[in-house]
TrEMBL record:
The keyword Hydrolase is annotated on this UniProt entry: yes
EC number(s) reported in the record: 3.6.5.4
Residue numbers of the full-length protein present here: 1 to 297 of 502
UniProt keyword list: Cytoplasm, GTP-binding, Hydrolase, Nucleotide-binding, Ribonucleoprotein, RNA-binding, Signal recognition particle
Function: Involved in targeting and insertion of nascent membrane proteins into the cytoplasmic membrane. Binds to the hydrophobic signal sequence of the ribosome-nascent chain (RNC) as it emerges from the ribosomes. The SRP-RNC complex is then targeted to the cytoplasmic membrane where it interacts with the SRP receptor FtsY. Interaction with FtsY leads to the transfer of the RNC complex to the Sec translocase for insertion into the membrane, the hydrolysis of GTP by both Ffh and FtsY, and the dissociation of the SRP-FtsY complex into the individual components.
Residue ranges occupied by any SRP54-type proteins GTP-binding domain in the UniProt entry: 270-283
Subunit (UniProt): Part of the signal recognition particle protein translocation system, which is composed of SRP and FtsY. SRP is a ribonucleoprotein composed of Ffh and a 4.5S RNA molecule.
Catalytic activity: GTP + H2O = GDP + phosphate + H(+)
Family: Belongs to the GTP-binding SRP family. SRP54 subfamily.
Binding site for GTP: 108-115, 191-195, 249-252
Membrane topology of the entry: Peripheral membrane protein
Name listed for the protein in its UniProt record: Signal recognition particle protein
Entry's localization field: Cell inner membrane; Cytoplasm
Length: 297
């Protein structure tokens, strides 16, 4: 499908003279290939440009190590720079959930994988961290979404807040908080409603809920295959409600994962998890090394 960057670069450097250090021209030629690789991986143009500039400064004049070819050396420099940008603060996947009951607000557009991810994360918190988790759906517009969460809850063995028809999202959130407190839960997760596009009503609603529960984490769930759109969605949610982290879903698909780089470069928010399939255990902590390897091919 794609030619790997290492292959491309070894081609480029085969044509170049053997020198002791990477010359500016060598690096420029190589970085043209890197740029194509980044764009093919769906990294946005301004992000790719900035990234290349940074790498160019680092690479020029570096002594060529005897044990590797100049091509391999540039790939390593690019790889390390990718990892640096992709790495967020703290432990991968760490969530601020001490002080029970800790609210986690799940936000995002419809179809991005929010409900599935809520259940996957609840399962993970229960099984890996031994937490008692309560989940509640605030999607009053699609009764099917509430049922979906309840079904997933049964499947993963995590409690869901009983559905009371006719309640507003803010009232459901208050009820979830109360139940989590009274029931001795460690964490309660609120699966907010999604829309096909970002709109004022959706944002106002999320803002109100956020004000009521004061979430410890607000996680944006977004389809990793949507590239630049994912980044725009993240910026809008962050401006309006403030997000603490991102979950990129559908990373099991064909995409090369460039959205991850754009996401980090543009929003600066940590990518905490990646969704790798529809099954309930297909959620992993975000590993910068892995995505860097995938972007480079
Ligand atoms: P929501 O509208 O944001 O709540 O989205 P859903 O959780 O209902 O997910 C929409 C569809 O995407 C469902 O069919 C999920 O099984 C699927 N899905 C969610 N996460 C992933 C993922 O990481 N990989 C794949 N392949 N499918 C996913």
């Amino acid at each position: 499908m794609f030619e790997s960057l290492s292959d491309r670069l070894s081609g480029v450097f085969d044509r170049l003279t053997k020198q002791g250090a990477l010359s500016e021209d060598d690096v420029k030629t190589a970085l043209r290939e890197v740029r194509v690789a980044l764009l093919e991986a769906d990294v946005s143009l301004p992000v790719a440009r900035d990234f290349i500039k940074k790498v160019q400064e680092q690479a020029t004049g570096q002594a060529v190590t005897k044990s590797v070819t100049p091509g391999q050396q540039v790939v390593k420099i690019v790889h390390d720079a990718l990892v640096e940008v992709l790495t967020g603060e703290g432990e991968p996947g760490a969530l601020k959930i001490d002080n029970p009951p800790a609210p986690i607000l799940m936000v995002g557009l419809q179809g991005g994988g929010k409900t599935t991810t809520t259940a996957k994360l609840a399962k993970r918190l229960k099984e890996k961290d031994g937490k008692r988790v309560l989940m509640a759906s605030l999607d009053v517009y699609r009764p099917a979404a509430m049922d979906q969460l309840a079904i997933l809850g049964t499947q993963v063995g995590v409690d869901t807040l009983p559905i009371v028809p006719g309640q507003k999202p803010v009232d459901i959130a208050k009820r979830a908080k109360q139940q989590a407190t009274m029931g001795g839960y460690d964490v309660y997760m609120l699966d907010t409603a999604g829309r096909l596009h970002i709109d004022e009503v959706l944002m106002d609603e999320v803002e109100q809920v956020s004000a009521v529960v004061n979430p410890r984490e607000t996680l944006l769930v977004v389809d990793g295959l949507t590239g630049q759109v994912a980044v725009e969605v993240a910026q809008e949610f962050d401006d309006k409600v403030g997000i603490s982290g991102v979950v990129l879903t559908r990373m099991d698909g064909d995409g090369r994962g460039g959205a991850a780089l754009s996401m980090r470069a543009v929003t600066g928010k940590p990518i905490k998890y990646v969704g790798l399939g529809e099954k309930m255990d297909a959620l992993e902590t975000f590993e910068p090394e892995r995505i860097a390897g995938r972007i480079l091919g």
